Amino acid sequence: MLQAPRRRAQHDDLLATVQRMRLLQIDSIHVVARSPYLVLHARLGDYPPTWLEEALDNGRIAECWAHEACFVTAGDIGLHRAWRAQTESNHWADRHAARVRDSHLKEMHDLLAHIRTSGPVRAADFERADRGVSGWWEWKPEKRWLEAWFASGDLMVTRRERFQRVYDLAERVLAKLDPPLDTAAMALSQEALRKRFILDSVRALGIAQARWIADYFRLKPAVSADELVPMLASGELLSVQVAGWDDPGYVHVDHAALLEKAFEGRLRATHTALLSPFDPVVWDRARLRELFHFDYSIECYLPAAKRQYGYYVLPILHRGRLIGRLDAKAHRAEGVFEVKALFFEEEVKPSQRMLDELAQAIAATAAWHGAPKVRLGRCRPAQIASTLRTHWRR
């Protein structure tokens, strides 16, 4: 995300973006746009959100458990299915699925038989006996069974309807993949898969210390510098010294030209964007502090009294730096994008250019989201509020 898009996004740009990141994390909170759409907007600019659902429906992308629940390209789903088949996961989704299978195996097989005979289903297709109960851990039984089969790989998501998962047999979803399922990936050993995920992590991160690599795909055990030595010897990874770092940085060979530009001082960041709380830029808090000197937490899971910045706080990327954060809410029916609060980092001294580019980024996000009128609340520092409001009144 060094430069803003130079042209209007095209459909294949969405797929190329997911491929570059390797993972597009899914989250259902929609105070602003749901996370995967916002992650894509930060990279593509103005694009139709329906492209994501179309790509899933057409088999160009698929859903799986990776970093968390994620979209991946059709070309990569074989890697993830092979990895999960060969490794023992301790993820909460797998533990939850195991408990459900232990207690309701007959009902789960009956549900699977129903889908095999009658076709795809949503959790909403089943009535719940205890109406009014809600929450992550208060799913209706059928929802838990569907998610358990999804975690095990027997079911996959064939499409989404109003962002609700529509589940079908894995073999039917895999049959529509474009490109077709990579059988060579499915045949890779655990060692070869781990190496592939390490290389893909470094490529997606741009530059990484060894201790940051495992988090991207939730690899266990952690990746060590010793494990990277053969990849350095083969030329697949490059080692670089970074000012202020005690440990070496690693760059994928595909980024060698960008690395050369950086050495020559010709790699310029010009982009300003609002980031999702679930953007891969901010996944790893240790990396975030080391690379951007930015402390961040997702406060929507905290009681209101314990929140420092707000419910759904978006980090602000500006020309290669994280300069601040804003608490936002989109009032779609009113066409209003509310910035409840905007905070610059203490060490950031906002220039006129910075404020102009931030105002443009907020306005662009609001317009793309169908809430073009921006309403601004409190700011830190307080004096920037009038400058931003003036920009939006033009």
From TrEMBL:
<dbReference type="Pfam" id="PF06224">
    <property type="entry name" value="AlkZ-like"/>
</dbReference>
<dbReference type="InterPro" id="IPR009351">
    <property type="entry name" value="AlkZ-like"/>
</dbReference>
<protein>
    <submittedName>
        <fullName>YcaQ family DNA glycosylase</fullName>
    </submittedName>
</protein>
